[in-house]
Write a structure and sequence with these properties.
The chain has about 325 residues and is an alpha/beta fold. It is built from ten helices and eleven strands. Strands 1, 2, 3, 4, 5, 6, 7, 8, 9, 10 and 11 form an eleven-stranded mixed sheet that branches. Bound molecules: uridine-5'-diphosphate and magnesium ion. The site of uridine-5'-diphosphate has 17 residues, from strand 1 and helix 3. Magnesium ion binds next to loops.
Length: about 325
């Protein structure tokens, strides 16, 4: 069994040596192989690539791929999936929040006959506010999504080759990988794993990027937000029919006309607001359709460094051609 560990890196200069050392040690302890560590440099500007390319020249297990600019965490993972060659693939963040030492545990569960073993985060180390936001998000998405997305499961996972092949076949450009992974199916199971603190540096996810990821997840796996407009519209019509009936009855029976300038203004403002919100919701979907039909590549590769296959010959292969990858599919040379 050959294991590929796929790691996206964006300005992780401070973590990289420790990351490669620890991951390498864990891989050494797993029989089989030769295993590989596929690192995607997602347009770092802090010298991560220099360190990484050096490591790839030194260590035949390390495959280094540099993207032409920063494409984002999920795009970098997609790139990694196109480059891994092992029969078992581990997706792992590059900041050591996902401990490489957990890989043998994931592997053990995998051997029981699963295709996907994902880590379920216990004891998050983030602040209270962020933890509550995560909780809220997972509650919301598991309520809305058309697949049963497991709560608290991040990208850290171990997958079989056939799942990876199916993932790379999906053509979506706005990729929410942990959702796609669930969507693919086969036998999947979660394993509780404690999430460590970031080894060094700062989180690359600003609140804005986190929100974008959350929206990508919800809008890619649910059309309930649009349906909500239909439901709310239906309820509004029922309420207005009831109010109209009440008004007619009040006039006929008690000769009383309902009054209320304030009620009029408040209800108008309320409905103007809801209409704008749902216009926004529809806009989100249209924006995503626009992104998808443009069909731009998910990422563009600037340079790759790896030892030539068959594995153990240990001659270096360096390529600086630009490779654009359309969708999650095959490589297309430009
Ligand atoms: N990352 C990346 N591209 C980006 C942002 C992040 O490749 O645009 C990498 C980053 O280097 C790290 C992983 O994705 O290895 C997770 O990012 P981070 O730890 O900043 O996210 P958090 O754990 O705070 O959600
Ligand atoms: Mg992190």
């Amino acid at each position: 069994m050959r294991i590929s560990v796929a790691i996206p890196l964006y300005n992780e200069h401070g973590v990289l040596p420790e990351l490669l050392a620890r991951t390498g040690r864990v891989l050494d302890s797993i029989p089989g192989g030769p295993h590989e560590i596929v690192c995607i440099d997602d347009g770092s500007v802090d010298g991560t690539w220099e360190l990484l390319s050096e490591a790839a020249r030194r260590d035949p297990r390390v495959v280094a791929v540099s993207l032409s600019r920063n494409f984002g965490h999920q795009a970098a993972f997609s790139a990694a999936l196109d480059y891994v060659s092992g029969g078992v693939v581990v997706l792992m963040d590059g900041d050591l929040q996902d401990p490489p030492e957990a890989i043998p545990q994931l592997l053990e569960t995998f051997r029981e006959g699963y295709d996907v073993v994902y880590a379920v985060r216990v004891k998050r180390k983030e602040g209270l506010l962020l933890r509550s936001c995560y909780y809220l998000f997972y509650a919301l998405i598991s309520l809305l999504a058309n697949v049963r997305l497991p709560r608290g499961a991040g990208d850290f996972c171990l997958m079989s080759r056939r799942v990876v092949d199916e993932l790379t076949r999906t053509q979506e450009r706005l990729r929410y990988l942990r959702g796609l992974r669930t969507w693919v199916g086969f036998r999947q199971i979660g394993v509780p794993i404690e999430r460590a603190q970031r080894y060094s540096g700062k989180s690359k996810y600003s609140p804005r990027r986190l929100l974008k990821l959350a929206f990508d997840g919800i809008f890619a796996f649910s059309i309930v937000p649009i349906r909500a407009a239909t439901m709310l519209g239906g309820i509004t019509i029922l309420v207005s029919i009831a109010v109209a009936a009440y008004s007619v009855a009040a006039k006929l029976l008690f000769d009383r006309s309902p009054q209320g300038f304030t009620a009029l203004i408040v209800s108008m403002a309320f409905f103007a607001g809801t209409q704008l919100v749902f216009l926004g919701v529809i806009g989100e979907y249209i924006g995503r359709i626009y992104e998808e039909v443009k069909a731009r590549p998910v990422y563009i590769v600037k340079e790759t460094i790896r030892s030539r296959r068959p594995w153990m010959q240990n001659t270096l292969e360096e390529s600086a051609t630009c490779i654009a990858v359309t969708g999650g599919g095959g490589l297309e040379r430009r």
